[in-house]
Structures are given as C-alpha cells and as structure tokens.
Design brief:
Elements: H1 2-35, H2 39-57, H3 68-80, H4 85-104, H5 131-138, H6 146-161, H7 165-169, E1 176-177, E2 182-186, E3 192-196, H8 199-210, H9 212-217, H10 236-249, H11 260-271, H12 276-283, H13 288-299
Antiparallel strand pairs: 1-2, 2-3
Helix pairs in contact: 1-2, 2-4, 6-8, 6-11, 11-13, 12-13
Amino acid sequence: MDTMASTSSNKQSSDKIERSEQMVDRFLDAIWMERGLSQNTLGAYRADLMTLGRGLSEQNKSIDMADKADLLAFIAKRVESGAKPRSTARQLSSFRRFFRYIMREGMRDSDPTADIEMPRIGRSLPKTLTEDEVDSLLNAPNTDEPLGHRDRAMLELLYATGLRVSELINLTQSQINFNQGVLRIVGKGDRERLIPLGDESQRWIREFIDGPRMEILLERQTDYLFPTRRGDRMTRQAFWHIIKRYAEKAGIGKKMSPHSLRHAFATHLLNHGADLRVVQLLLGHSDLSTTQIYTHVARERLKDLHGEHHPRG
C-alpha cells in the first residue's frame, strides 16, 4: 500500500513540475516577444522559476499556486544555504515579473510578491586612485610616439571631464569648442551636457590634432578624434587594455576598471569641495543618488591632498 501511495505522490509531484514548466515557458515566450530579451536573461528567469517550481512540487503545488508564505520560506532556505542578497534580489525580481504576468492573463487575482521587500544590496564603492597615482598613470605613455601622444591626450581628457569610456571613444572633433573651452556630450537617454575643459587637457588635445593624429591617420579620413592606427574608432576593449598596460607601467597595484579615471575625477572634485549637484551634472547622472556613492569615497579624505591641480587645468 505504501508503495502505491508513494507512486501516486511521485506522479502528482511530477504533474506539478510539468504544469510549472509549461507556465514558465508561456511566460518566457510572452516576455521575449514583448521585450526581445537575450537568451542569457531568459535562461536566468527560467532557472529561478523552475527552482521555485521544483520546491513547490514537494508540497503538491505548481508554481501558479504559490502564496506569500511559500515564497518567504523558499527565500529563507536560500539565504540559510548562503545565497547573497544580490542573488536573492534577482530571484525575487523574476518571481515578481512572473506573477504579474499570470495576473494579467487572468490566472490568479493576487500577487504573492506584492508585500515582500527586496533585500538591501550594499553598493560596492569604486576603488579610487589617489592624485599621485593619477599623475603616474598620466605620465606613463611615451608621448614622443604618435600613439603614446594619443593615449596621453585620452587619459588627460578622461580625468579632466569624467567622461564614460563609450563617450570618449565616440568623440568627434566637432564636439570640442576650443573658443569656449567646453566639450559637448550627448549621453545616456540623449541628454546633452556641456563640460568645461581645463587648460592642460586642451593643450594635449590641440597638440595631438596638430601633429600625431595626422601621423596615425596618414592619408585616411575619420571624424573620430582618437583613431586607431587602422584609421577607425577604438573599441572599449582596446582602450581597456591600454589603461591596464599603463597602470602596470606606472606601478599601480589597485584593480583598475575602464571607469577608474571617471571615479577619480568625481572623488577628487568632491575632496576639493565641489558641490555634489555640479559633479552630478558633469558626470551626466540623471539621479543624484547615483552620484552620492562618490561622497562615501570622498569622506575617506585623501591623506595627502594636493590642492593645486584638479580639475586638470
């Protein structure tokens, strides 16, 4: 008799998993059609939802039958087994989207995720470079060579303006106004911003345009301000390799990122008393809370402040 009961229970459990799988697949088809998400994103949704579906099948439930207590128990179990807040938040986000979808389709009339709070995720602070380290990095390229001169001009401009790497490599000559000493950038969400250029970065860019740039291009033509030796636009990856190479040459032991100079620009400005809203405008952040992360870095005041040369000018 026990064997029959066990077989029946297994059958019910497998039916529930099958039902969950069908519903998850319908949901994924729907959001793929709506939003054109990548296969990686869809795969992550599927993994999150099917982990929940398999857990619920042990209670003889399919995923659409989950209630708030089921979800809280599932999350608690994951946290106890060492899941990080970021991973838990991602799973909860997958569940939210799924339950909103099945409510929209009329398959249930309440959202079990509605009152579950997202776990707090501590934003990791960017590791900032000291002003001495920035100087070492800027001095690393061999400016007697055309490509070295180009790299120095790029690094100077990044530190002087806090541009995103994508904005730097897409920069054209027409975006620089030497008369007014400003750079015109169209950033995320087509928001335009004007960034003042210091004398130092202007000098490096002018010298680059007047000689080394022509040597790199030879007879070729391009609108991009900082071309490669093939005469085309530099990729993010190529610029990333350039920064890593110079950081090594400058003896900087910190882990670098393509945004290291952007972080240094923001942090050093704040260290020297710049207003947070001014830094927000210069960085092109739509939300002040994004900029506020730098105040935490700036609070750890640099032990050795040189007040004479930032912003680079």
